[in-house]
Amino acid sequence: QVQLVESGGRWVQPGGSLRLSCVVSGRTYEMAALAWFRQAPGKDREFVAAIRWIGGRTLYSDSAKGRFTISRDNAKNTVWLEMNSLNPEDTAVYLCAAGGYMRKSRHEYNDWGQGTQVTVGQ
């Protein structure tokens, strides 16, 4: 198992920026990919971005591409999500996940954090 703890979620103005962090621990050697998902009230969990732990190849959703950047530091067991040009539609609980494949489907990820709330508004 891999444990993941997100942080950094807070209120931010439209057009603003925010960086989320996810610290992982446990059996990280089984982890091939880390991903960020988000879930708004009443909606399904939505893929945002993913990164391979080894190599650093990235994958983004259409809505995230050009605005968000995912990165990681293997030595610190940390993955970040830098979010720019935020709008109210980005409001959601953002969750960090670990899995064996870098895919957009939530079913490819085995371990999940509790999530951190991001609220975009005036």
Description:
The protein has 122 residues and is mainly β. Helix content is 0%, strand content 52%. The chain is built from no helices and 11 strands. The chain has strands spanning 2-7, 11-12, 18-26, 33-39, 46-52, 58-60, 68-73, 78-83, 92-99, 109-112, 116-120. The strands form 2 sheets. Strands 2, 4, 5, 6, 9, 10 and 11 form a 7-stranded mixed beta sheet that branches. It has a 4-stranded antiparallel beta sheet with strand order 1-3-8-7, with no helix packed on it. Strand 5 and strand 6 form a beta hairpin. The mean pLDDT is 96.
List descriptors.
single chain, 122 residues, mainly beta, seven-stranded mixed β-sheet, four-stranded antiparallel β-sheet, globular
Summarize the main sheet.
Answer: 7 strands, mixed
* Alpha-carbon Rg, integer: 13 Å
Order of helices and strands: EEEEEEEEEEE
- Beta-strand residue fraction: over 45%
**Form type:** globular
Helix/strand class: mainly beta
Helix amount? under 10%
Count up the helices: 0
Distance between the termini: 39 Å
List low-confidence stretches.
Answer: none
Average pLDDT works out at: 96
| Count of extended strands | 11
Subunit arrangement of the protein: single chain
